Amino acid sequence: MSKPVLEIQTLSFSYKPDKLCLDNVNIKIEEGEKVSILGPSGCGKSTLLRLIAGFEKPQKGIIKLDDQEVFAENKFLPPHKRNVGLVVQEKALFPHLSIAENIGFGVRKSPHKKVIVNELLELFRIEDLKSKYPHEISGGEQQRVAFARSMAPSPKFLMLDEPFSALDEKLKETLYNDLLEIFLKKNFSVLLVTHDENEAKIMTDKQIKILDGRLS
Ligand code: ADP
Ligand code: MG
Fold first, then answer.
1. Considering the domain 4-83+155-215 in this protein, what is its CATH number?
2. Theoretical Cys-Cys bridge with 106: which of 61, 116, 124, 153, CB 3.0 to 4.6 Å?
3. In what order do the strands lie in the sheet with 4-13?
């Protein structure tokens, strides 16, 4: 039987005391499963991913990654101890590092860094960009680099926060196809948040709707 890579129980969070941002959220993602959370702007999607990554602390609930509690009553694991990858809309590459160095940043101390980086350059079909710098490549290429960078430390679980929304339709389509192949090959579990229903259906097996901080 497969075990969940993510399990969230009765999670609630608010930025201000008088207004709940996320209200009693429950989610379970099994190994290899691809799930999207679909909802309009401002309904709490990015906040949910930030809570899972450990950048914010919930007021209530339990978050488990790979069967280990990373948040519970009296328990909080900092972001660097949670083995999750996060890709956001703003690519946020390091401007002073080459593309190869950007991709290898999370594994810079590993003896396998070169092998890992070369494999990702090939998977994302960006080998010829490896010595360039972020300002020398296009927005679509930068987003490929951001995806490759998030995968370098081999997280079991990837979180994607509207990573396609700044790309035009044609670039999106090729990136969707390449990513679906890579997810399958690497057996990644994925949580995508988006406002785009079509994208959610292409990229994930299961879509969950969110409205005003509540899942349905
Ligand atoms: P989404 O990603 O779905 O667009 P967010 O999670 O970014 O939504 O935001 C959910 C709600 O929380 C919004 O009402 C937003 O204004 C509010 N919010 C987001 N970040 C902060 C913050 N740092 N401080 C206070 N309120 C915030
Ligand atoms: Mg958002």
1. 3.40.50.300
2. 153
3. 22-30, 4-13, 60-65, 68-72, 75-76
Å from CA of 127 to ligand 1 middle: 37
pLDDT score recorded for residue 1: 59
Q: Is 47 in the pocket of ligand 1 (CB under 6 A)?
A: yes
64: its two tokens: 């488990």
Please tell me the pTM assigned to this model.
0.94
84 CA → ligand 1 middle, Å: 21
Rounded CA-CA distance 89/162 in Å is 6
The residues spanned by each domain of the chain are 4-83+155-215, 94-150
* Residues 81-133 pLDDT 10s: 998 999 998 878 999 999 999 999 999 999 999 999 999 999 999 999 999 99
Give which of 77, 72, 33, 64 is closest to 191, Cα–Cα: 33
What is the spatial distance between Cα 136 and Cα 106, in angstroms, rounded to a whole number?
A: 22
Ligand 1 atom index nearest CA of 43: 3
Residue 152 bridge partners (DSSP): none
Rounded Cα gap, residues 199 and 192, in angstroms: 10
Angstrom CA distances, 22 to 6, 58, 62, 69, 71, stand at 17, 9, 13, 19, 15
